[in-house]
Structures are given as C-alpha cells and as structure tokens.
Automatic annotation (TrEMBL), chain A:
It comes from Caloramator fervidus. This is Purine hydroxylase beta subunit apoprotein. InterPro entries: Ald_Oxase/xanthine_DH-like (IPR016208), AldOxase/xan_DH_MoCoBD2 (IPR046867), AldOxase/xan_DH_Mopterin-bd_sf (IPR037165). It comes from the Bacteria. PANTHER family: XANTHINE DEHYDROGENASE, XANTHINE DEHYDROGENASE SUBUNIT D-RELATED.
Automatic annotation (TrEMBL), chain B:
Residues 1-77 form the 2Fe-2S ferredoxin-type domain. This is Purine hydroxylase delta subunit apoprotein. Pathway: Alkaloid degradation; nicotine degradation. Keywords: 2Fe-2S, Iron, Iron-sulfur, Metal-binding, Oxidoreductase. CDD domains: fer2. It comes from the Bacteria. Pfam families: Fer2 (PF00111), Fer2_2 (PF01799). One of its GO terms (molecular function) is 2 iron, 2 sulfur cluster binding. It comes from Caloramator fervidus.
C-alpha cells in the first residue's frame, strides 16, 4: 500500500497540470488601406434555376457551400436551384483571395447584393406578368412569385425566364479598410471577430512534453451560416494553434529554412489533439451577410497564448518565444 | 523488369523500371490519381494504400516490391459506410489527406468493428491533416463503425 501511494505521488510530481486562457480580437479582410473588393453576378437561367458567378476560391473552408446557402436564402429558393460557378476565371468576376478570413463576409456580401438585385428584376418582371401595380405585394418563394393576398395568382421563375431571358443582378462589395497612421493608430478593419480559448495542459517535467488534456473555444461568429463548417474551422484552427505553440518551427538561418521537411517540421497528429468544447456566440453583425463575420484565422489566434499561460500555471515558467518545445522546457526547468 | 500485381481486384502485368516507386506505378502508369503524394518521404501518409491487408506508404515501397501483391487504393474502396460517414460528419476540408485517412480507417475497421477513440486516433496517427484538426475524422470513423455494427441504416 505504502509503495503504491508513493508511486502515485511520484507520478503527480513528475507531471504538473495547469490551466490557461487566451482572448483575442481580429479584423475581417485585408484591412489597413489595402483595397478589398468582391464582385458577384447572379443570373436567372432558362430552367428557372439561378446561376451565381463569384470568384471565391474553395480551399476546403466551405466557400462553395456558404455562397450557395447565402444565394438560396436571399432568393428564397432551394439549394439545388443554385448553380455556382466560382473557380472559372473566364466567367466568374474577381472576388479577391481566399485569405484574411474574408470570403464569407466580403464575397458573401457581394453574392447577397447580386441576388437582391436579381430578385428586384425578377419581381419587376413578375409585376408585369401578374398585372399588379407594384412589387410591394409580391412574395418570392421556392422559385415562384405570387401575390401575397391572392396566392393563386402566381408565376414560376421558369415562366419568367421564358418571357425575359436577360434577368441579371450584379453585386459589388467594398470593405472598410483604412491605413493606420505612423504610430499604428487608426481604424484599419471592420468588422472584428472575438475569440477566447481555455486549455488544461499536463507538463511532463522529466521529458518536457506538453499534453493538452482539455480545450474549450468560444467564438463570436456574428452568425454561423453553416455551423458544421464553423466547427471544422475551430478544430482545424485549434490544431494549428497547438503546432504553432509547441512544435512548428521553420528554423530560418541565413535566409534558409532548416526544417523544410515533415521529418523536422513537426505538426500535430491525431494523438496530440483533444476533443474541443465549442461555443458559438451569434450576435449578428449589421454590415455582414445575415450577420456572418470572418472566422478562419480568429479561431487560431487565442490558442498559443492559452497554452503558454497554462504551461506557466503548471511549472511557473513564462515563455516569450514559440514554439515551446520539450527541449526549451527542460532547459528552463533544469536552470532552477 | 516485369511485375504482376492485383490492384483493386484487377490483375496487371506491367513492365517497370527498377527505380519506380509504388506511388508512381499507381498514379502515372495505372492512372489511379486518388492516391496523393504529400512528402515523398514516409512522413505524411497521404500516399497510404493497403498492400496485402496492411497499410503502407506507397512512396516508400518500390514498385518491384509489390510483385505478386494485392493492392487497394482509394478507387477500390467499395465501403460506402466510411465514405458517407466522412461526408456526413464534415470530415473533409481540402481533401488532400482524405484518401489516406479513409484507407487507414478501412484497415482499422476491417480488423476491429468496435474501436475505442484511442484506437481510432492511433490508427490515423500516421496520417497528417492540416485542415480538420482530426476531430471530425475521428467522429466519422466512430460513426462508420457504428453503422457497420448495425447501429444505423443509411
Ligand atoms: S507521400 Fe508518402 S508518406 Fe508522405
Ligand atoms: S482535409 Fe486538408 S489535409 Fe486533411
């Protein structure tokens, strides 16, 4: 019995636990005076479906899904009736890069504006066909337009397209981006996304290894257009944050990368990442498409500070440089 | 030199150069481009295929070593449960790691229909993913296992 307790106590001393949090805010888009414009076109097709042309690149983050969702919501048509053309530069207008956490907010806005303009043109045409004096009393629903107080007075998008095959809408969204002054003061971005991360870590004082035991990430998304995709971004961003805090180092020396292969440039594996408790706060942003702000990069930013704070809580050592590798931890522990 | 092998149920007899890697044979000679090359040095698992029931990094296997073997690539995975679970759970982002992940998952589930979370994490620990942070891949494999055990019909 005595020996067992001693062993457990020994274990406790070798492995120390700590908790830490990190809180950040981050601007959506290029910001700081760099021109940030997204364009989109919407067009009513012969079969009553709607074509959306927007140069928003899909890199796995979900731009294709989100643009279709925004178009379907704006025109009140099923997802299947939206035909997206987004990666053909001969057809789709420029919507900037899939970077700076900007596609949902910026290009999503352009798609929404294009669809609103198309909708307006569709209603204008429906007004003539349905023989009413104004668009005010018309409802757009599931690919048809009808008179609110007289629903059987109805015309489908397909019928409208057959009468007028030139119904289009253009959307241009210009984001707020102003340059800061020489002292770094000003209003470089709009809007901002807020994120908070909490972790509990265990530091092995014999090997210097840090294990993340638990994690929670709270993200102010404005509106989650697609919650599964947002969760995917949180999981991915968290893992990148773990790599950033504990492992990843390109090792620049005299302008050359020392760690240019996965043998030396270590990124997290499935065994390094815990399940993450995720909380999405939906406080819609006025200038955003249905309230949705950029979230790609904001999910990553609070992770490293949270981990470094947790390490401090565990072993009482403050690190000011990342990555905090096993070697660096052992070096510090053996100092004192 | 000439080798014989079976890829995704089809027999091949092919003339190859000695220095050819299995991944080149699959991608360049057989046009099975679902298998990806990430690092070419056995670190990332993007090139994972199943060779005689075991997962291997096809960038580290020489083509001649595959003589008389049975290979399954992503194109030969008929198991819809795993693929559907990946789609349903949102386990695919850029998709570069996905073929390797699915083969690693298949190889696990072929042997163990009731894996623990730790089993799953270990089974895919040789496959790097830069996008998903792994959690949705882990839940997809859990779900696929559940479906296989008859927990749910899709
Ligand atoms: S390409 Fe084979 S392990 Fe990376
Ligand atoms: S989904 Fe992009 S690397 Fe895994």
């Amino acid at each position: 019995m005595y020996r067992r307790i001693k062993k457990v106590l020994g274990g406790d001393i070798l492995k120390k636990r700590g908790k830490g949090i990190g809180v950040t805010f981050y601007g959506t888009g290029y910001g700081n005076g760099f021109p940030d414009v997204s364009r989109a076109y919407a067009r009513l097709l012969e079969d009553g479906k709607v074509e959306i042309l927007v140069g928003a690149t899909e890199v796995g983050q979900g731009a294709k899904t989100v643009m279709v969702q925004i178009a379907s919501e704006t025109l009140n048509i099923p997802i299947e009736d939206v035909i997206l053309v987004n990666e053909d530069t001969s057809k789709a207008p420029d919507a900037g890069t899939a970077a700076a956490s900007r596609q949902t907010y910026n290009s999503g806005n352009a798609v929404k504006i294009a669809c609103e303009n198309l909708k307006d043109n569709i209603l204008q045409e429906a007004k003539k066909i349905l023989n009413v004096n104004s668009k005010i009393g018309l409802v757009c629903e599931k690919g048809s337009v009808y008179v609110k107080t007289y629903p059987s007075k109805k015309v489908s998008f397909k019928e409208i397209a057959n009468i007028n095959n030139n119904l289009k809408g253009e959307g241009v969204f210009i984001a707020h981006t102003t340059q800061m002054d020489e002292n770094g003061q000003g209003a470089p971005y709009w809007p901002y996304t807020f994120a908070a991360c909490a972790v509990e870590v265990e530091v092995d004082t014999e090997t210097g290894e840090v294990t993340i035991l638990r994690a929670k990430l709270v993200l102010d998304v404005g509106k989650a257009v697609n919650p599964t995709l947002v969760e995917g971004q949180i999981d991915g961003g968290f893992a990148m944050g773990v790599g950033y805090a504990l492992m990843e180092d390109v090792g620049l020396k005299d302008g050359k990368m020392l760690n240019s292969s996965f043998e030396k440039y270590i990124i997290p594996t499935s065994l390094d990442i815990p399940n993450i408790e995720k909380v999405l706060i939906e406080y819609p942003e006025d200038t955003a498409p249905y309230g949705a702000k950029g979230i790609g990069e904001p999910v990553l930013l609070p992770v490293a500070p949270a981990i470094l704070n947790a390490i401090y809580d565990a072993i009482g050592v403050r690190f000011y440089e990342i990555p905090v590798t096993c070697e660096k931890i052992l070096l510090q522990l053996n100092k004192g | 030199m000439k080798i014989e092998l079976n890829v995704n149920g089809k027999d091949y007899s092919i003339e190859i150069e000695e220095h050819l890697r299995l991944i080149d044979l699959l991608r360049d000679k057989l046009n099975l481009t679902g298998t990806k090359e990430g690092c070419g040095e056995g670190e990332c698992g993007a090139c994972t295929v199943i060779m005689d029931g075991r997962i291997v990094n096809s960038c580290l296997v020489m083509a001649f070593q595959a003589h008389k073997s049975k290979i399954i690539t992503i194109e030969g995975v008929e198991d819809e449960d795993i693929k559907n679970a990946f789609i349903e759970e949102g386990a695919v982002q850029c998709g570069f790691c996905t073929p390797g992940m699915i083969l690693a998952a298949k190889s696990l589930l072929d042997k163990n229909e009731n894996p623990s979370e730790q089993d799953i994490r270990e089974a895919i620990s040789g496959n790097l993913c830069r996008c998903t942070g792994y959690n949705k891949i882990v839940s997809a494999i859990k779900k696929a296992a559940e479906i296989k055990r008859g927990g749910r019909n899709v």
